[in-house]
Structure formats: C-alpha cells, structure tokens
C-alpha cells in the first residue's frame, strides 16, 4: 500500500498541512473534516477512507483548516470558509469532489467542484456550539463536582471572554459566527 504524502498545500493566503493519498493525477476527493473535537475522533475514519480511495485509484486530500490540527492561525469561521474555497480552487485542476463530514459540511456549497458529498452533516453551527457547551459542562461537573449549565459559557461569551470548550479556545467572535452558520444549499450535485 502506498504511504501518504504530507505537504503544506498552498490555498490562497494559507499554507495548510495536508495529507495526500492516491495518484497525483486523475480524480480527487477533498475531505473536509468535522470541526473541533469531532475532528479528533474522526481522524482514523478519514485516514481509512483516504486509503480505500487510493486503493481504487482515486486521490484524496485531507487538510487541517486554519487554527485546527497542525495548521497555524486562529480557529475562525471566516478563515475556514475562505480556506475551503481556496482548497477547492487549488485542487480543481483535476476532477474534484468534496466530501464534508459533520461541521465541515457547513463550510461549502461545493462551488468549483464536480460534486458534494455530506456525511452526517451538522444542521447548523449553533447546534455544534450547543453540543460543545453541553460536553464541556459535563466535563467541568465531573472534574469539580458542581453542576454547570451551558448558559454559564454563553454568559462568558457575552462578557467578551474566550472559553475553552472541549479542548478548543473559542472566542466570542467565533461563537457568534459559528452560531450563525447554516447548512448551505448545494451548488453542485449533492449526495447525503
């Protein structure tokens, strides 16, 4: 089995750590991972998917978005959407499909690709944010022994505080932007 290739893929103003698998020409799948802690839980699945595609002669690219994984920058919704558009543009020299998982599906309508696949797409950024606050409340309760409500984190955002949620520092601006994200209407053929 061919090993993966690691590169810093130039995507507009971003140099994104990217795992490439499969042939360097021909069809390619850009994999947009889930956001935040879901990305960590899905790494193995996405690596296995890349290997399976490579075995079928299809290339794949799995990039860390700005401020996630090994990519520098801030975890910022606008940067994620911009980087996603630039990734599609960078890879569009070959037949390209986009496969977006959970929160990654909130970042693109697939424009510039030949097709969009969504795996268990998140319905909104607000739902992802609520899930993260609930998970953090449970973790805080287990650690401190006191009951914590997700509204505590909402109040902290309202005061302008950055809040650590499930291992990620979420700024008030990112919380607002994430809360406003909805699943975009697909601009290309879509499969869910």
Structural account:
The longest helix has 20 residues, at 125-144. Strand 7 and strand 8 form a beta hairpin. Helix content is 38%, strand content 23%. With 192 residues, it is α/β, with parallel strands linked by helices. The strands form 2 sheets. Strands 1-2-4-3-5-6-9 form a 7-stranded mixed β-sheet. A two-stranded antiparallel ribbon has the order 7-8. It has helices at 37-55, 77-91, 125-144, 150-158, 172-180, and strands spanning 5-11, 14-21, 28-32, 59-63, 96-101, 115-119, 163-165, 168-170, 190-191. The chain contains 5 helices and 9 strands.
Helix-strand blueprint:
Layout lengths: L4 E7 L2 E8 L6 E5 L4 H19 L3 E5 L13 H15 L4 E6 L13 E5 L5 H20 L5 H9 L4 E3 L2 E3 L1 H9 L9 E2 L1
Parallel strand pairs: 3-4, 3-5, 5-6, 6-9
Antiparallel strand pairs: 1-2, 2-4, 7-8
Helix pairs in contact: 3-5
Report the biggest beta sheet as strand number plus sense, adding barrel if it closes.
7 strands, mixed
- Helix share of residues? 25-40%
Radius of gyration from the CA trace?
17 Å
| N- and C-termini, Cα separation | 29 Å
Strand percent estimate: 15-25%
Number of strands: 9
pLDDT under 50 segments (min length 5)? Answer: none
Main β-sheet, spatial strand arrangement: 1-2-4-3-5-6-9
Task: Write a concise keyword list for the protein shown above.
about 190 residues; seven-stranded mixed β-sheet; two-stranded antiparallel ribbon; 9 strands; alpha/beta
């Amino acid at each position: 089995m061919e090993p993966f290739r690691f590169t810093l893929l130039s995507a507009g103003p971003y140099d994104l750590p990217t795992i490439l698998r499969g042939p360097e020409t021909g069809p390619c799948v850009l994999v947009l991972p889930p956001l935040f802690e879901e990305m960590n839980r899905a790494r193995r699945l996405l690596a296995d998917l890349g290997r399976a595609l490579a075995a079928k002669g299809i290339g794949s690219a799995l990039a860390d978005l700005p401020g996630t994984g090994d990519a520098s920058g801030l975890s910022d919704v606008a940067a994620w959407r911009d980087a996603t558009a630039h990734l599609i543009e960078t890879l569009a020299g070959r037949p390209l499909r986009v496969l977006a998982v959970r929160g990654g599906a909130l970042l693109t309508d697939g424009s510039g690709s030949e097709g969009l696949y969504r795996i268990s797409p998140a319905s909104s950024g607000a739902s992802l944010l609520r899930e993260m606050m609930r998970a953090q409340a449970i973790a805080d309760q287990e650690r401190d022994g006191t009951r914590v409500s997700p509204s505590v984190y909402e109040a902290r955002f309202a005061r302008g505080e950055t809040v650590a949620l499930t291992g990620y520092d979420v700024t008030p601006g990112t919380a607002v932007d994430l809360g406003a994200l909805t699943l975009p209407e697909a601009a290309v053929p879509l499969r869910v």
